[in-house]
Amino acid sequence: MLGAEDAARRPPRVDVRELVEVRSRRPEAIAEAAEARDRRPLLGSSGRLLIVAADHPARGSLAAGGDPLAMADRAALLERLVTALSRPGVDGVLGTADVLEDLLLLGALERKVVLGSMNRGGLAGAAFELDDRFTGHRAEDLAALRFDGGKLLLRIDHRDPGTGRTLHAAARTVDALASLRLPVFVEPFLVGRTAAGVRADLRSTAVARSVAIAAGLGGTSAYTWLKLPLPADGEAARAYAAATLPMVVLGGEAHGDLSRTYERWREALRLPTVRGLVAGRPLLYPAAGAGLDAVASAVDRAAELVHG
After folding, report:
1. Where are the alpha helices (DSSP H) in 135-273?
2. Of residues 23, 12, 10, 96, the one with CA closest to residue 61
3. What's the half-sphere exposure (Cβ side, CA atoms, 13 Å) at 251?
4. pLDDT tens, 13-71?
5. Which residues, 6 or more positions from 76, have their beta carbon under 8 angstroms from its beta carbon?
6. Virtual CA dihedral for 120, 123, 129, 133, nearest 10 degrees?
7. For the chain, which has fewer Cβ within 10 Å, the N-terminal or C-terminal residue?
């Protein structure tokens, strides 16, 4: 492990050679760092969550801030994540094993909520995109690493048989995490195939249907949270009323001036079921060419919205 004190003392520079040296000579250092990590409750004193998401690359989705390969630079992504995680009010991170284990080695996950991304097999643009296999963390992996929960993506296309297999796998994953008393964040969408690829239906009526379907997965909903998009028609209150499960707002994609995005987050955070925000690219890549200072500013503004 590279050391939490070192990470706190110096600027968030990531030495790829150092990471590779540890990974190649002492792979057991990852498990040791996970075992030694200082954990915290899921919810702090505010009762709300601000989670930074970085699970996009494992689906081959690398574009951000107008750059089609922005998230392909792993060192730069890690520097942005370390910056975000260092800001007051940031509760944790969502990512795949490779990203989270780099952050463990960098000492960046102390007293943070760590959520593992579980189904990354529905690669962006693939013919099998909606047969979204669980190729990431399993429930037992999350427990062994002492992580704090899992996240699964549930895209529902009534015309694609892959959706049925994904629904079944998602339900069993909800059961597996509940049996370990670990929260699972389910991210549902109604989708359809277009000439441009799979596209989500973000009308409030479609979001409401996806909420109802996701809330009913598994043998218990006791540990289920929902991670929901903002409806395009602005009717979040109508859509989110379809369940009484705790919900977090999905940050989504944002371009240019983020003022309207922040205002929409503010409005959704006022709803009785909403307990926080999970955002990735709008915080890590707030504008084309944005540096680490811009990341810090974007994260601070989101933290103020979430925690007040």
Report:
1. 139-144, 162-179, 204-215, 236-240, 259-269
2. 96
3. 29
4. 788 999 999 999 999 999 999 999 999 999 999 999 999 999 999 888 888 878 889 89
5. 14, 70
6. -30
7. C
60 CB-near residues (< 8 Å, 6+ apart): 123, 124, 125
Q: What angle do CA 225, 226, 231 make, to 5 degrees?
A: 160
- The reported pLDDT for the residue numbered 255 is 62
Q: Which stretches of 87-148 are assigned E, i.e. beta strand?
A: 92-95, 113-117
CA atoms lying within 13 Å on the CB side of residue 213: 23
pTM of the model: 0.92
| pLDDT band at residue 6 using 50, 70 and 90 as cut-offs | very low
| Side-chain-side CA neighbours of residue 195 (13 Å) | 0
Give the mean pLDDT of 150-155.
96
- Cβ(122)–Cβ(59) below 8 Å: yes
Query: 71 with 56: CB under 8 angstroms?
Result: yes
State the Cα torsion 281-286-289-290 to the nearest 10°. Answer: -120
pLDDT given for residue 120 in this prediction:
85
Q: Both ends of the chain: CA-CA distance in Å?
A: 34
- CA–CA separation, 20 and 215 (whole Å): 41
> Residue 24, exposed/middle/buried by CB under 10 A (0-12, 13-18, 19+)?
exposed
The answer to whether the beta carbons of residues 283 and 68 sit under 8 Å apart is no
Alpha-carbon distance of 71 to 67, in angstroms, equals 9
SS3 303: helix
Q: What DSSP state is assigned to residue 230?
A: P
Cβ-count burial of 42 within 10 angstroms (0-12 exposed, 13-18 middle, 19+ buried)?
middle
